[in-house]
Amino acid sequence: MNEPSKRPDAGKPREAIDVSDFVYAATGARVRRLTMPDGAHWFPAVDVCRQLGHTNSRQALADHVPEGHREILETVTGAYGLSVPAGREWRRDLNVISLRGLVLLVNACTKPACAPFKQWVAEVIETVQREGSYSLEQAEVQPAGPGAAVAYAMPEQVADAIVRLEAHNLQVDQELAVAQRESLALQRESLAAQRAVLAAQEAIAEAMGRIADRLDVLAPGRPVPGGPSGVRPTTESVLADWRQRLSVTEDVWTVAVVIAPVLVEKGEFREPLEAIAARTGLSVRRVNECLRLLRKHACIRSRGGAADGAPVYVLHQP
């Protein structure tokens, strides 16, 4: 990432190799950078260390980068009268390194991908020691006008590293695309399987409901598969069970005596509250409270309402 300079770049030294290509060949990644008005480049140390495999960035800086080539972001920008770039990733206390510091970290890296760049650095040093200088070859296409920058050919090692990295990244992108397609296909298959399971569960629930409805209309005393005693309850057994499980007032018991025979004989009770009130002599409100108490103690359970609005109750099966 490049940050635009806030000062004119008049007098800025010309770069023989584009810094983005240079850093990409060295680290294998497009690393964020800040370019100062005088052409100096600074890079977030954490970005460089992450790409090079240095797990402890502070220790890596202390071991391999001299103090003159590692700084705090606020100190670097303040020296040029610039403010810290906006954004959460650009903190005032962010450790940054110069281009030389970056090269020093690359030289300390053991990743095989860094080997071509380090070999080129060694070649430059050897050439300078032997010949006193190292020059990049000028490109065949020269600048058209006077005063224009001279074009240089990128060193073979740097160019090869860039080509190799780009090819590797392209392959990784292709593999990632294939993996994403396979993952999407698996997700679709999983979704289809979940829908099939859900449909099967709904079918089973519907079948069990039909079985329960048929069992509810069996004659008293007929064997009931799956029942706790194997025999359909009678009015007497139901009332006896209710009497043992709860202590009720006389009006609650009056409602219980009215609905129990119907529940046993028909499998359900569906009458308006007014009809129960008329048969028991209780108020509609009190009838509703009695039914609520019977539901609370798991004597009966609600099964919605009838077409005429009357509540429907069935025996609670443990």
Walk me through the structure:
- It contains eleven helices and six strands.
- About 20% of the residues are buried.
- The chain has helices at about 20-25, 45-50, 55-65, 75-80, 100-105, 115-130, 155-215, 235-245, 250-265, 275-280, 285-295; strands spanning about 35, 40-45, 70, 95-100, 300-305, 310-315.
- The chain is α+β, with helices and mostly antiparallel strands and about 325 residues long.
- Helix 6 packs antiparallel against helix 7 (about 155-215) and helix 9 packs across helix 11 (about 285-295).
- The strands form two sheets. It has a four-stranded antiparallel sheet.
- It has three domains: about 20-135, no CATH class; about 155-215; about 235-315, Arc Repressor Mutant, subunit A (Orthogonal Bundle).
- Strand 1 (about 35) and strand 2 form a beta hairpin.
- InterPro entries: BRO_N_domain (IPR003497).
- One of its GO terms (molecular function) is DNA binding.
- This is DNA-binding protein.
- It comes from Streptomyces naganishii JCM 4654.
- It holds the Pfam family Bro-N.
Number of helices: 11
Mean pLDDT: 77
Q: What count of domains describes the coordinates? A: 3
Task: Name the helix and strand elements from N-terminus to C-terminus, one letter apiece.
Answer: HEEHHEHEHHHHHHHEE
Strand order in the sheet with the most strands? 1-2-4-3
Shape: rod-shaped
| First and last CA, distance | 69 Å
Q: Could you estimate the helical fraction of the residues in percent?
A: 40-55%
Label the structural class: alpha+beta
- Uncertain spans, ≥5 residues at pLDDT below 50? 4-10, 217-229
Compute the CA-based radius of gyration: 42 Å
Largest sheet: 4 strands, antiparallel
